Amino acid sequence: MSYYLGIDGGGTKTTCAVGDESHLLATATAGPSNIVRVGEVQARESLQRSVRQACAAAGITPAQVVRTCVGGSGAAHPELAEVVRRSLAEILTAPIDVVGDMQIALEAAFDAGPGVIVIAGTGSIAYGRDQQGTTLRAGGWGFAIGDEGSAHWIGRGAVSAVLRAADPRGGTPEPLQDSAFSAALCKVWGVTSLPDLARAANSVPPPDFAVLFPAVAASQDDLAAQVLTKAGRKLADVAAVVIRRLFAKGHTASVPVAMTGGVFRHAPLVRQVFYNELHALDPRVEVNPQVVEPVEGALRMARRGT
Question: What's the pLDDT tens digit per position in 210-223?
């Protein structure tokens, strides 16, 4: 029997799936492995740990794996791909294919068929393929200048929103007032006041805004809802760019769209706004309500040798 590995390496977590020719046998999750965000040492540790744990859960050794496919943000870049491949080659002897996270997500959502996948995790991007196999991406330009609707973008927007809301109004200086929402953000970063939150947000190097996302998603505050609503709209906008370019107005058939990433998975409001806004922009879309697991695409690509 042959065994295969599919790996989804992200900025928050790394998921490894072990399968034979037709069945998923086990999965395991380790820490982040986005090299740009966490560095080579942390990425190597997370990748290897996910493989060892998944293989142990499946009752096999890494030496029994015949092929591996890894998908990661930016991992398709030759230099980064080589780092990933070298890290895994320390424990795996079989061929290792390294592709972008958008490729394994598209595979998981549509197999080889047409459609548009929108990723909203630590970063964000839209990626599509038409009936002829032509592919196109939009967004995904990094947290400093883009990644609208991502966990990083939402965390940064939440900090900005609570600080703006605390500004004095009417020309009368007032002390900054904490709310339950701002207190939740402060707690995540380990600060105790809004001035400290502002200093942390402007520190060098920049802080991890993405870790604030769970607090935003869990909040009932109106400011949190405003940030999440805007995120859903931004994600719909980037998806619409790909749809317009790949599926011209003369294309009368429905356009399949799928979602993946922690923002979609853990923020129902983002999913709802994304669906409503995208359908308003293009009534042809058919959005899969289930959040896709990209690691399933990576495992599928490993089985067929990408």
Answer: 999 999 999 999 99
